[in-house]
Amino acid sequence: MGLGAYITALDLGSTKTCVLICQLSEKSKLGVAGLGVAESKGWRKGIIVNLDSAVLSVKKAVEAAEDAAGVSVDSAYIGVGGPHIRGVNSRGALPLGARSREVTSEDVRRVFEIAKGVSMPPDRTLVYAKPQEYLLDSQNGIRHPLRMVGSRLEVNVHLVTGSTVAHENVVSAVQGTGIKVEDTVFEALAAAESCLTADERELGAALIDIGGGSSDLVVYCKGSVRQTAVIPVGGEHFTNDIAVGLRTPIPEAEKMKLAWGERDPDKPEGAELEVPSVGERPTRVVSYAKLSEIIEPRAAELLELTQAELARSGLEKQLGAGVVLAGGGAKLGGLVALAEQTLGLPVRLGCPAGIEKMTDQLSDPAYATVVGLAIYGHHLRLLRDSHDTSLSARLWGLLRGKNS
Questions:
Q1: What is the chain's alpha carbon radius of gyration, rounded to the nearest angstrom?
Q2: pLDDT the model gives residue 313
Q3: How many C-beta neighbours within 10 Å does residue 402 have?
Q4: Is residue 272 helix, strand or coil?
């Protein structure tokens, strides 16, 4: 198979860098070919602060994935996130003429361009834009206006913008390895591709992708994205709290966070853990209860900030499918139950799916974004191929008409 038969996804996180190579079967099914994971270097609070270190992390992950798949990567779909991301809704309008007429594909394209053409400062760049619904002569709720009749076409669009510098640094980190960037995708939207069903998006659902430096939020209702936001709390904040509270090195604090999350729920919190101290001080012993006193306030902060964002969207009463927690931080013990209590909504853990030959490792919530990026790339590939086939058919029809 040629390189066109493969799709590569690249998730640059603040704690780990993941590369997933997927192969397309003859039936256009997507299957896992190779996975590469490397520790992320050069990141701080969800933003690249050392480009050379970030490039090196990408290289290591890419090489591991290439070895596993037995192919070379030349292009990839990239996830972007972090505290610099902002979401906003916009509307565009296009008069169709004094008299009603059919809406054409060119009308749909033009009104969409008008809606996403909002004025942005030079330090902001457009990451994502997608229609929510169309309105024709004030009739709302229209999803596909093509060939419908009216005199004024409008569209509501959701836009995701990011810091130009932060976005360009992510792109540069990938291009620095010789890989072409096919497209950049907001990480929560990618995670939703692998963790939310079509029914959940239709009924109303929120997905929280809990990363290292921050947590990304996306809200769906009636099948469309209604709000995106970034909450400035992630897994690293839990780790730092433990390190400071117990005066232990960061690597040891990370181990303790994982141990707390993986502990047996039936095990009494009076059970104890050994805590290595900083420097040459002797090892100490603390209980799970003490660890809970450090971790739970940060979890409460994350969920309260999420609740505030949902309230700001005005859709908290329309989330019939509840909330899905994805990302590595979602596995923190007791977080699902605490989220249900805080948000007053059903909450589940988001385990990625949608690709054939997935291993248990890839089915982990920590890989929701990279799996979703591959699915997103696959959808775009199918859409492009369908468009090319349709265009070829029209051109062939024109040629036949000229020659007949």
A1: 23
A2: 87
A3: 7
A4: strand
d(CA 244, CA 225): 38
H/E run at residue 262: helix 250-262
For residue 92 the two structure tokens come to 């565009």
Q: Which residues pair with 225 in a beta bridge?
A: 220
DSSP state of 328: G
Q: Report which of 140, 138, 145, 139 is spatially closest to residue 111, judged by C-alpha positions.
A: 145
Q: pTM for this one?
A: 0.89
Identify the DSSP state of 82. Answer: S
Which regions of the chain are under pLDDT 50? Answer: 1-3, 389, 391-404
Structural contact between residues 286 and 310, judged by C-beta atoms closer than 8 angstroms? no
pLDDT (0 to 100) of residue 404? 40
Residue pair 16/42 in contact by the 8 Å Cβ criterion:
no
Q: Name the residue type at position 250.
A: I
The b-or-e profile of 102-113 (16+ CB within 10 A means b, else e) is ebeeebbeebbe
Q: Write the CB contacts of 240 (distance below 8 Å, at least 6 apart in sequence).
A: 250, 253
Length of the chain equals: 404
Angle between helical axes of 335-343 and 288-313 (0-180°, round to 10): 40
Q: pLDDT value at position 366?
A: 93
Q: Is 84 exposed, middle or buried (0-12, 13-18, 19+ CB in 10 A)?
A: buried
Q: What is the DSSP letter of 231?
A: E
Residue 396: C-alpha distances to residues 382, 385, 389 (Å): 21, 16, 10
Please tell me what DSSP assigns to residue 366. Answer: G
Cα torsion angle, 269, 270, 274, 278, sign: positive
